[in-house]
Amino acid sequence: MLAKQKVLLVKEETTYGTDASPTPANNAIDAKNIKINYSGEVLERELQRSSLSPVATKLGKRFIEVRFEVELKGSGAAGTAPQIGDLLEACGFSETVNADTNVIYTPASTGHKSVTIYIYEIVDASNAKLHKITGARGNCNFIFEAGQIARIEFTFQGLYQAPIDTTPPSGVSYEATKPPIVESSNFTLNSVTSLVVQSLNIDMANEISQREDINSAAGIKEFTIVGRKPNGSFNPEAVLKATYDWYSDWVNAAERQLSLVVGSAAGNKITITCPKVIIDAINEGERDGIRTEDIPFRLAMNSGDDEISIEFA
Fold first, then answer.
1. Could you write out the DSSP letters of every residue in 163-185?
2. Does 210 score more than 90 pLDDT?
3. 288 CB contacts (<8 Å, ≥6 apart)?
4. Which residues 6+ apart lie within 8 Å of 36 measured at CB?
5. Are 121 and 6 in contact (CB under 8 A)?
6. Which listed residue, 44, 171, 233, 289, has the most CB atoms within 10 A of its CB?
7. Which residues contact 52 (CB under 8 A, 6 or more apart)?
């Protein structure tokens, strides 16, 4: 098996944990750095015998963790949800579709969706190994770097199923739009647009809980999002205090609005808005010999479930 020959399919589930049967024609996701980890709880059997040799262990609770990266891009049609929409909803976002206008994702505190994930590892034209993960929920981390393609790092946990040997998927169809570059993004903090920033990341930091259940296979009934502590960082070039007073913002825990725009074409323009950013620290940095500030921050709600908005328009 070659590491690069993998096909990822994702589809929203109607009923939690029930295979949604994603298809190559409708649910293929362009992704990279796809990693599949089968995890379980090793049960030590500390039996007392005449020998100090250990007794064989047993495997208890088990689940599957999947990590991958996708490009941040729209569907190409304003008001049509992007292919990654199901992934965002399974990371605790709600989806609002305004026909012919935009699709907006904001955090939700209830009604979190789940997805079924298929990962095919291709051997040859006739053989593949299929990993099925049902009931998957997870976390996402948005990464924006100057002159690069914006990307999202996803981590999902889902219910265990043994992989199977099968044939490779046929008729795989990916979203045709090309991702916009992070440039001319109008990065704004507290209405200041003059800051020179090379990178920004926003991590939703979802807290995923296992619902343990003696009636469920592998001892786990469900993976549930029970909390989030969204945070991030950016690295502006150092400026005079008169240009921007980081120290006052930090000491006073000032709540500042942050926003940026990636892309400009209809259906492929993404606007990120965070109404209340609070600085955690001010750390000295350097970029190609130029003094910078490394600024970690956290996001806070405005009225609730609105600490970040992601608009595809």
1. -EEEPPP-S-----PPPPBS-S-
2. yes
3. none
4. 64, 65, 66, 119, 131
5. yes
6. 233
7. none
